[in-house]
Amino acid sequence: MRDDHRSGCPINLTLEVLGDRWSLLIIRDMIFGNRRHFRELLLNSEEGIASNVLADRLKLLVQQGVLTKADDPSHKQKAIYSLTEQGIELLPVLAQISGWGVKYLPISEELGIRAKLLHEGGPKLWNVFMDELRSLHLGAPARGKSKSGAGSVAARLRAAYEAVVARRGTTAKRSPRRRAPRS
User: Where are the beta strands (DSSP E) in 29-93?
Assistant: First the structure.
């Protein structure tokens, strides 16, 4: 065990990388919002992350191998962040966390729809989505379409979100709908 860790426990070590208030939200925004530039992550954060905190967390996630940072070929002064395989493999973790949140917390319908669909789709859907992320972030060849033929998982999640927003005539920043915990 290295001296700079509290313990060698896998939960502790994971929390040292991902356990702050922002890291998983940055990864969430990269996975579900395809936000890959600093400015996109800063300005489109539902939770309002500060620029110095975002810079610090991006640096940590790159150092830990969860993200990579490269010059953006479309703009010399921009960097583009990509998920690594480590980052992509956090999708099931996010799906489980969000599924728990849907079950027990007062989520908003528009921000909970993707969690609901991921929960219902389970590991099969997660694997298809992770393959899409590998293609987008790692340049891996696409492995084929989802078995339902309904387009990419990312597109289906985005369409479901947009449908809820359109139906409710709301934006994602609306306050959460209160729900009683399920038994």
Answer: 67-71, 79-83
Q: What is the pLDDT of residues 137-164, one digit of tens each?
A: 999 887 755 454 468 999 999 999 999 9
- The DSSP code for 147 is T
Please, what are the domains in the chain? Answer: 10-84 (1.10.10.10), 90-168 (no CATH)
Amino acid identity for residue 113 in this structure = I
Dig out the tokens for 64 from the structure.
Answer: 């830990």
Residue 21: which region, alpha, beta or left (left: phi > 0; alpha: psi -120 to 50)? alpha
For the question of whether the overall pTM of this predicted structure is more than 0.90, the answer is no
What is the spatial distance between Cα 157 and Cα 150, in angstroms, rounded to a whole number?
11
Residue 46 phi, psi dihedral angles, 5° rounding: -60, -30
